[in-house]
Design goal:
By secondary structure, the chain is α/β, with parallel strands linked by helices. It has a single domain, classed as Rossmann fold, CATH 3.40.50.2300. The chain has helices spanning 15-26, 40-50, 66-76, 91-99, 111-126; strands at residues 6-11, 31-37, 54-58, 81-86, 104-107. The chain has a five-stranded parallel sheet, with helices on both faces. The longest helix has 16 residues, at 111-126. The termini are close together.
């Protein structure tokens, strides 16, 4: 059993939120933040170059939305996990996330309660 870290790419156009998310995720065991992206175009390029296991994707960003970027990532690299993070808790956004092949959907207000279990599950799977 190798104890490989789960490689995570953070994608959000808000610098402050990205820094907070980076610090929060970095404190979890078994993870490595391999990079940060600021929009949908950037995240696709970085997914290709940095090869993350998990992309934490903001929904609304300039240049290309998180949904479009998610769809592209899942088409090109179906083995990658993409979790949509958004300010909106509306079920419409959850349905959109499903429609665009996201692996999950977390409202930013619920990150502290929901994100740890998602990441722990990835870490458990990576170490098997």
């Amino acid at each position: 059993m190798d104890n490989r870290n789960v490689k995570i790419l953070l994608c959000d156009d808000n610098d402050n939120f990205r820094q907070l998310l980076n610090q929060y995720v970095k404190a979890m065991p078994g993870v490595e933040i391999v990079g940060e992206a600021i929009d949908g175009v950037d995240v696709i390029e970085k997914t290709e170059s940095l090869n993350p296991d998990l992309v934490l994707m903001d929904l609304s960003m300039p240049n290309q939305s998180g949904l479009d970027a998610t769809k592209t990532i899942k088409e090109k690299w179906p083995e990658k996990s993409v979790i949509i993070l958004t300010l909106y808790e509306d079920s419409v956004y959850k349905e959109l996330a499903d429609e665009f092949n996201a692996d999950g959907f977390i409202a930013k207000s619920s990150i502290k309660t929901q994100l740890p279990s998602v990441i722990e599950a990835k870490v458990r799977n990576a170490s098997h």
